[in-house]
## 1
Amino acid sequence: MATTTDYDAPRTTLTADASLEELKARRGRPDMAAADDNDLAAAFELPGSDLLDEELTITVVPMMADEFRCTRCFLVRHRSQQATAVPARCRDCS
């Protein structure tokens, strides 16, 4: 069970007479929590991670003379969908 923390309470500051053991104890606590988080993250498998070794082949078709690339969404569209010429924007983005 987690303990509650009073965030309105004044923070303790390091003093010149703080012992080395006390400083090491304060420093050791966050490191232990970070190590536990890393162990938890290693247990998860991301979707598509099994496809990392596969090579993808895609046929690239060059842009035709009657097409333009929208400057906002970067999709290639037909000239009939062009709303503004400068900057070249499609009807969906304008």
## 2
Amino acid sequence: MINPNENTDMVVWDEKYATGIELIDSQHKELFSLTNELFRACMGDEETLKSVFIETMGRMVEYVRFHFGAEQQMLQRINYPDYQEHKKQHDKLIRDILEAANAHSKGDRLVANQFVRTMRDWILSHIAFTDKLYVAYIADQKKKGLLSDKDVNG
């Protein structure tokens, strides 16, 4: 059972995750929040896990698709050279989410905890490292006068 006096966040936003792009950073913060909701659901009783996890998982699927769409549009707009590889990583996470949701709906009780760890690992690797690659590209292109804030923000 969850102790409300304990910190029950699995992932905590830190400025090291910031891209400096307000829209992307606010969307990443929402992914942190949804991951923490899923984590807290896993720490609850069986009924909490069933109801909260299913509802939050549905929101996660929709939000990840929304966020990836926004990020990919930006990457295309700025002609990011590693766009295809970045999109491939997004597509893999969406497949993983859908597989986890499907397995959970078929009664796999272990999938909830496994999925929360998948999201934690995604945040700690993709957002912290892979997204920093396009941040560096943007900074370099701005320095050369080839991109502006308008190009990045649409």
## 3
Amino acid sequence: MLGTRGSELARAQTRLVENELRAHWAGVTFETSAIKTRGDERKGEDTIVDLRGGRKGLFTSEIERSLLARKIDIAVHSAKDLPSELAPGTQIAAVLPRASVDDLLVAPARHDLHSLPVAGIIATGSVRRKHQVHWKRPDLEIVDLHGNVPTRLRKLATDQWHGIILARAGLERLGLKSNGRHFRFEQREFFAEVLPREIFLPAGGQGVIAMQIRSDDDHARMLVESINDFDTRLCLRAEREFLRLLHGDCNQPVGVLATLNGALIKIQAQVFDLGATAPRRAEIEGPSEDAEGLAGQLLVKINAK
């Protein structure tokens, strides 16, 4: 039994996992259970409340409880929603190949970050994205944006905003590919511009679908390891280790991205301090087999800024 949130995006991501599992295990029956989380009940995907893991626990704690209670066997998550400390007795056992890590500016007219009108209005619920926008366009008004992807697009269609910021991976997994930098949704046309990664460094785990299991469940481990993407999992481990050491879940503005180049891994990070406009930035590169050690070295490097 697979478990996930009930949003359209969560279901779409779980179908990707289920299809891969079915292709590898034709004789096994897979079913999905949609679990309502506190974040879904609040209707606010970027609410910052949680005793254990910042906002992120709002979208994972109920699923983790179902996993530990053996109501489900495999929890499917957007990796960026997972707190850096998982529930005891659980682990990330596999991931699918990473999708795009980019953020998109989605707007009713064609704009990039620099061409937005002076004092224009941008909507986002992400603390990280708010700081990144303010860093380069302090004149813009930034308003809160909550709800799932379709809800956010409907709000953009009706509110007097100049744009919203969304993850490219989420749009594409819902079938909203911005071919030619525009797409249609419910009879409305929207324009999508990729935001520069040197400014909008993504959240740790962005674009990654993670499968969490009970640590003692060897059967579930065998199933999901057959579809694991080793390179993506290695990069995710590096990003999550940096966040764990920083204690930087979603209520702290942090961007971190690990990329592989042959036998080398490069990790880049941004950390916005309270009251600071520009982030502290650093990067490190070294042997991929030392990914988690490099994450620790990167933290030392960025703390020296």
